[in-house]
Amino acid sequence: MINQRNPLFPKRSLGQNFLINPNVVRRIIASCDLNKAETVLEIGPGKGALTRYLSQGAFKVIAIEKDDQLAMQLKQAFKNTNVEIIHADVLKYPFDKLPNNIKVVGNLPYNIATPIIEKTLNHRRKFHAFYMTVQLEYGQRIAAQPNSKRYGSLSCFVQYHADAKILFKIKNSAFHPAPKVQSCFLKLEFLKIPRHAAKEEDLLFKIIRACFGQRRKTVENALSTLMDKERAKALLLESGINPKLRAENICLEKYVQLSDKI
Ligand code: SAM
Predict the structure, then answer these.
(1) Average of pLDDT values for 191-220?
(2) Would you say the CB of residue 14 lies under 6 angstroms from ligand 1?
(3) CB atoms within 10 A of CB 205
(4) Which of 3, 5, 18, when mutated, tests ligand 1's pocket best, judged by the most ligand atoms within 8 Å of its CB?
(5) Residues 4-22: what's their mean pLDDT?
(6) Which of 155, 145, 256 minimizes the C-alpha distance to 196?
């Protein structure tokens, strides 16, 4: 592992908030349910706070780091071990090159958490679970259930493909530099097939975005950006949805039923 006192100045542009609390590191590793037969993809190993322990618990670790200096130091530190350091931007790296059935772990650069999650979900056949550190409020939005303020199109998109659960909260003092907000450790368990599969996924997410785009309006009004109000009302009733509800009151299963009717 790279010396944690390494004089490199953390780069905000790369979302560098390094884990410095060994108890939190232990808790993260214990929650990842590692086994000696599996390969782990680590996103943003940084100074290797998690990498060393991941390598002890897994068969192999593939770690993708964008920062030039850190990647060079990691390559040196993990030479001749079961850790392969890839110096690349995770958003550009072709995931098709990765082996199948792997687990993803990362204390994510918060500024690009959404594109990383989207990319991972788009390649979900490669992965079975994704354990990540994200901002608490963001993790709560991902794991939110209907009838809550945080439930939105992000919750629906992620939960269509995965079961989401916040495993524990993390205080900002666990990182250097300390971010302004609290964090959490979130687990996504990828579903082999969605629990409620839509006939046309693009249409499903278009409808969900339209409804949450105007979340204060009733869904019959929010949907009128896509169709006339009478048709929206009829389709909602046919799908067993009260047209006077708001987007946050409708569960994913009902959105699927609605999109299948259109
Ligand atoms: N895993 C380390 C830890 O827990 O201390 C570092 C976590 S830090 C929040 C995020 C890491 O992701 C940094 O090392 C940063 O350089 C790296 N990173 C940022 N953007 C990246 C990208 N597009 N591709 C790969 N790594 C990236």
Answers:
(1) 96
(2) yes
(3) 17
(4) 18
(5) 84
(6) 256
> What residues have CB less than 8 Å from 63, skipping those under 6 apart?
41, 42, 43, 45, 51, 74, 78, 83, 84, 85, 86
Does any ligand 1 atom lie closer than 6 A to the CB of residue 44?
yes
Q: What are the tokens at 252?
A: 């994913």
Regarding the beta carbon of 109 and ligand 1, being less than 6 Å apart is answered: yes
**Ligand 1 within 6 A of CB of 40:** no
Binding site membership of 248 for ligand 1 (Cβ less than 6 Å): no
Please give the distance, rounded to the nearest whole angstrom, from the Cα atom of residue 47 to the centre of ligand 1: 9
Pocket flag, ligand 1, residue 16 (CB < 6 Å):
yes
Looking up tokens 């839509």 gives 198
pLDDT of residue 49: 96
- Of the chain, the percentage scoring pLDDT greater than 90 comes to 95
Helices (H), 32-107: 51-57, 68-77
Dist CA 16 CA 1 (whole Å): 17
Report DSSP letters for 118-140, one per residue: HHHHHTGGGEEEEEEEEEHHHHH
Confidence of residue 9 (pLDDT cuts 50, 70, 90): confident
In the chain the domains, ranked by start, together with CATH numbers, are: 12-190 (3.40.50.150), 201-261 (1.10.8.100)
For the CA of 89, the closest atom of ligand 1 is 24
| Residue 157 pLDDT | 97
Digit-coded pLDDT (tens) for 231-241: 999 999 999 99
Protein residue with least CA distance to atom 8, ligand 1: 16
